[in-house]
Amino acid sequence: MLAFIHGKQAITSLRHFMAGKSEADIAAEFTRLEHIEATETEGITALPGAIALLSHLNKAGIPWAIVTSGSMPVARARHKIAGLPAPEVFVTAERVKRGKPEPDAYLLGAQLLGLAPQECVVVEDAPAGVLSGLAAGCHVIAVNAPADTPRLNEVDLVLHQSGANYCDQTAKWRCYYSVKHLIMI
To answer: What superkingdom heads the lineage (predicted)?
Structure first.
């Protein structure tokens, strides 16, 4: 089940697993789950090095965005509890018609940053997000993505280390600083 839902909009997953149920039933379940995810945030933390990386981007004047399959209430709550810096652009499920693995979310993120997708780097851990970033034409860095992620061989960089500190990956990141902007998961 996790392989299906990871990185996808909750409503998409609910429609899949609640096949045959009415849209009203699905919407009610979505509202219930959204409330739980937005309020039960114990254990939510930033990935190691994420805050340092985003702070570095801010100091360097490199715009970045958060592009997530989560709804705005869930994304805002988790962003706040993780202590991440505020992004210039925040793209959530409500802002796109088609969620990941379709390219819409990353295309919107690039557009809102005023960039062509090929000027952006997507950092993703979910197979749906990797596919979305590639479909959008962005550079893609896969972080702890499952080994069976489709098209993983097409990404620009794969980081497998559990708990890897992104700022310790300087040599690997250096080639991506020539790309002007970063879109985060």
So the answer is: Bacteria
**Euclidean distance between CA atoms 166 and 185, whole angstroms:** 14
Six token digits for residue 145: 């993505």
Query: Which DSSP state fits 150?
Result: T
Give the CATH fold of the 50-184 domain.
Rossmann fold (3.40.50)
Question: For each of the chain's 185 residues, which pLDDT tens digit applies?
Answer: 667 767 778 888 899 999 999 999 999 998 999 999 999 999 999 988 889 999 999 999 999 999 999 999 999 999 999 999 999 899 999 999 999 999 999 999 999 999 999 999 999 999 999 999 999 999 999 998 999 999 999 999 998 864 444 444 444 443 343 344 455 54
Rounded Cα distance, 140 and 74, in Å: 24
- Is residue 121 within 8 Å of 183, Cβ to Cβ? yes
**Is 47 within 8 Å of 32 (Cβ atoms)?**
no
Angle in degrees, CA 25, 103, 15, rounded to 5: 15
Residue 99 phi, psi dihedral angles, 5° rounding? -85, 180
